[in-house]
Amino acid sequence: MRSMDTTEEADRVYIAVLRKMGPARRLQIAMERTEAVREMIRAQIAQDHPGLTDAERHRLFADRWLGPGLAAKVYGPLPKV
Prior knowledge:
Elements: H1 8-20, H2 23-48, H3 54-66, H4 68-75
């Protein structure tokens, strides 16, 4: 579970803090982190492909979020970028 940008000690402290929290707060943190990752993916797509339509950006997001196989099943092939 170790993060690439933190020390082992920092990870231990963070896990200890999480264990002391109630389940509702831990879920809230997980949801906030998930949304932050989604926004980072969207921002990277927008930066890398500024001329795409919203639909094309959404399709690229799906590929990164769901994985290529599932995204292709749900949304069809990737746009030519």
